[in-house]
Amino acid sequence: MSGVSQRRAVDWLKRFGLYGAATSVLRLRGQLQFRLADDVGTITIGDAHADFHMTTPNEFSAVRDSPEEVVLADVLAALRPGDVFYDVGANIGVFSCLAASAVDSEVVAFEPEPKNAARLRENAQLNDADVGVHGVALSDTNETRELGITHFNGTHQTGPAGHSFVEDGDAVDATISVDSVVGDEYVEQQELPIPNVVKIDVEGAEGAVLSGLESTLSHPDCRTVYCEVHEDRLQAQGSSVADIEDELASMGFAVDVPFEPYGEPFLRGRKSGGDASS
């Protein structure tokens, strides 16, 4: 189902009061499929393939039932041999491990949530993938921040869970303290290579990530950026999707919105010569 169709289906279910029942059915189906599945699953897209641990329902969903495959395919098509790929908000490493498999590229992954960062390292080892994992949140400030944690079945699981920085009024199951760092400063301090392709998925913190990485993303060698935009969280911060598009444009990117895998815009910015698939 496309992102637009998915959003329409969700709107229809909510309008007729069926959204809660539908999500409960899908959740039960997913739990049954998870219990019947192996502990390791494989994602194959074109010539790229990678194995991933699936010991929680969230991990199973990320590997077997993710709507982001169309974005993954486009990212992989944008990579060239020898590229550097930044995975910002890498989670358990789906994009990272597949990017490492696709071409002879160096992958730099940023994931502040400790359990996901640990699993990312395990998945990279499972695939003998060249992935450097940095357990920090890229932002526009150097500080310690509270990351909201969502519990599933009463536990803190690895895998996608919509973890985001806690803002006033947010209802969360728990919080953990994580290090937030200014992206450009961190890249310089750690002597990281300039990326050629970047993926950003940070649950509403995309404006701060772009601001903190302005110099890095503006570099001529950085030719393609993918950025999932979370409209509700941006609005709560007094920002918008248009603001994110403008920020990317100010760095030299021509921006389009080719994907909506979860009903949220996934922007693609390309500089002249940036050859992502159309």
General description of the model:
The protein is globular and about 45 Å long. The two termini are 19 Å apart. The protein contains eleven helices and 13 strands. It has helices at residues 3-15, 19-36, 57-64, 69-78, 94-102, 114-126, 183-189, 206-212, 214-218, 231-236, 241-250, and strands at 40-45, 48-53, 84-88, 106-110, 131-134, 137-139, 143-149, 164-165, 174-182, 197-200, 224-228, 254-259, 266-270. Residues 1-6 have low confidence and may be disordered. The chain has two domains: 1-36; 40-270, Vaccinia Virus protein VP39 (Rossmann fold, 3-Layer(aba) Sandwich). Helix 8 packs parallel to helix 11 (241-250). With 278 residues, the protein is of the alpha/beta class. Strand 1 and strand 2 form a beta hairpin.
Question: How do the helices and strands line up, and which of them pair or pack?
Answer:
Blueprint: H1 3-15, H2 19-36, E1 40-45, E2 48-53, H3 57-64, H4 69-78, E3 84-88, H5 94-102, E4 106-110, H6 114-126, E5 131-134, E6 137-139, E7 143-149, E8 164-165, E9 174-182, H7 183-189, E10 197-200, H8 206-212, H9 214-218, E11 224-228, H10 231-236, H11 241-250, E12 254-259, E13 266-270
Parallel strand pairs: 3-4, 3-10, 4-5, 6-9, 10-11
Antiparallel strand pairs: 1-2, 7-8, 7-9, 11-13, 12-13
Helix pairs in contact: 8-11
Give short descriptive properties of this protein.
seven-stranded mixed beta sheet; Rossmann fold; SAM-dependent_MTase; 278 residues; single chain; transferase; disordered N terminus; globular; methyltransferase activity; alpha/beta
